[in-house]
Amino acid sequence: MVGAMANNGRIRSAFPVTNGSKDLTPNSAPASTTGSEYGPVEFTREDVETLLNERIKYKSKFNYKERCENMMDYIKRLRLCIRWFQELELDYAFEQEKLKNALELNEKHCTDMEVSLKNKEEELNMIIEELRKNFESVQVQLAREQTEKLAANDSLGKEKEARISVEKAQAGLTEELGKAQGDLQTANQRIQSVNDMYKLLQEYNSSLQLYNSKLQGDLDEAHETIKRGEKERTAIIENIGNLKGQFSALQDQLAASKASQEDIMKQKGELVNEISSLKVELQQVKDDRDRHLVEVKTLQTEATKYNDFKDAITELETTCSSQSTQIRQLQDRLVSSERRLQVSDLSTFEKMNEYEDQKQSIIDLKSRVEEAELKLVEGEKLRKKLHNTILELKGNIRVFCRVRPLLPGENNGDEGKTISYPTSLEALGRGIDLMQNAQKHAFTFDKVFAPTASQEDVFTEISQLVQSALDGYKVCIFAYGQTGSGKTYTMMGRPGNPEEKGLIPRCLEQIFETRQSLRSQGWKYELQVSMLEIYNETIRDLLSTNKEAVRTDNGVSPQKHAIKHDASGNTHVAELTILDVKSSREVSFLLDHAARNRSVGKTQMNEQSSRSHFVFTLRISGVNESTEQQVQGVLNLIDLAGSERLSKSGSTGDRLKETQAINKSLSSLGDVIFALAKKEDHVPFRNSKLTYLLQPCLGGDAKTLMFVNIAPESSSTGESLCSLRFAARVNACEIGTPRRQTNIKPLENRLSLG
């Protein structure tokens, strides 16, 4: 791999930098010129492995400051390596896009050359055919003239003038024959030159094929780079776990330090109290001593006068000596208590310093953990962005799987055995395993939502796709699954509960908020809404104010709504009500109106089962007044009716007809998906109203996402397995690269607005 690569058309040179004890060479990897505190750097495979396998050595395990500095330096180098990998991935993505554009231009040029070559070859064939016809006619004419000459020689030997004329005619014909032969030789030379040109074109085509294989190799290398980034993300996650363990250990040490500090403070208080009491006792003893000394002096003075008091004086002296001994003992205790107090103060000071150091190290570790988690989130965002880019380049239909929670009264004893979620790095958040008859069926989709996922979590994953509608793309999101699996809850939510709003209300809120924020950039948008349902293969206008037109007793609408697709891939339904909307509140009112008009019914599988396919369409027209750019986007949000088995639903009468119509349309959808997956020439879009309405989304240039909803109870395992298999086939379909619908306003429109 070369050490310098193209970036925006310029050659980026590699700069060696010392990393640890190794010099990075220009042959190691593509270099990055992004500035950092370590300067421009590049990494080799050995450098990355050395960095990941590096073990930090410490002089002392209790020197937390040194450990923190070494850890900060290690994290900085990790951050530098991660940033280098991110820039490398961006450079690879840019190079891949550049090579893809070059390949498309070369393929187009080759196709044009082949067409022109075929046209020239057909012209030359026509010329050769005409020359052959002329040559044959000349030969026939020559034979006829020779026959006439022989006849003239036999019958009219005497007519010399006629013979001369015949000879002249023969000479003329000979000249014409020579000319024809010259033309034939010229045509052969032209054919030879055309053959040489065809050989050159074949060689050029083979070189293009080699170039295409090289591009495919570069794409494989980019995939390997992404895999290495995911492995590094795993290493970062493990590092975060280690940091969290160190953080908890430091917290335990801090708690122990706090407890020991509290004990020392208690001992200090007890010593202070004991010293104060000893000081009081000492003062009392000193006062008694002074009083006794005064008495001794008084008695000695009187003893000179009274010898009878010698015994009392001796007793008093003995008392004074004993009190002096007590005073010395108390003084010694006071000195020892003061020393203990000094030692306690010193220990307390050391504990306080240690506490402050540990507190600072904990703060540093918290900041490092936050930075590492932030990098992890950014890396996950980058992975999703690259994954979406690869899917858009492939043109596949994205598939999200959502498992609803168990409802009250359902059997949850086998839930853990029926559905499980793999924990490996490759399948984390994207895999789902289904057990049926002790056999494990594994599936992998673009995203899998467990029963604990909220409506907000689901919408976060599709918010960027909704944004594409404002950018001028056609976007289609539809929910598929058996009856009672949570499709309508996913799309519409639960009325009256803001936290459980479905995708349709949340999409509309995001679009209106984004429209408001884009006004500062000169964008103005006009939004139009239409809603319909397909009930028993009949289209009903759910926004019609005429109830007779919405529903009749026999289930057939009086108005005939014909489906038409124009050359641009846009879909139009005849006589369908289309309303301009200004706010999300207006759309919410229209959604409530459509929900009241929609066909629902009660079955043994669902109390309120949707008996029709609901299609919500939002047409977006935007214009930028400063750049004169126009965009036309479409957002289709579809809640399909649930597939069901008659043996489980217990449908009869009208419900039986509805079930048959629903299953027939979903079967037609399966036929379309099967034909797209096999890339057949004929795709049966016209077999049902549903597939014909979805034709631009399934076979055009739209961004399409399917939600497959799964019921977790063990009694629905068979239907869940069928739904997951159908979703896997949908995920494998390639429908083409999405195309943005944008143009520049005509000159007359600009003048009329100005």
Quick tags:
single chain; 754 residues; alpha+beta; ten-stranded mixed beta sheet; three-stranded antiparallel beta sheet; 16 helices; elongated; disordered N terminus; disordered C terminus; nucleotide-binding; microtubule binding; cytoskeleton; Kinesin-like protein; coiled coil
Explain what the structure shows.
This protein is of the alpha+beta class and 754 residues long. The protein is built from 16 helices and 21 strands. Strands 5, 9, 10, 11, 12, 15, 18, 19, 20 and 21 form a 10-stranded mixed beta sheet that branches. β3 and β4 (22-23) form a beta hairpin. The longest helix has 146 residues, at 160-305. The two termini are 55 Å apart. The model is unreliable at 1-38, 552-558 and 747-754 (pLDDT under 50).
**What is the radius of gyration?**
46 Å
Strand tally is 21
- Tell the overall outline: elongated
Query: Uncertain regions: pLDDT < 50 for 5+ in a row?
Result: 1-38, 552-558, 747-754
Secondary-structure-derived class: alpha+beta
- Report the portion of residues in β strands: 5-15%
> What is the terminal separation in angstroms?
55 Å
State mean pLDDT (0 to 100 scale).
77
| Number of helices in the DSSP assignment | 16
The main pleated sheet reads as:
10 strands, mixed
Level of helix content?
Answer: 55-70%
Region (Disordered): 13-39
GO molecular function: ATP binding; microtubule binding; microtubule motor activity
GO cellular component, one term: microtubule
Domain Kinesin motor: 396-733
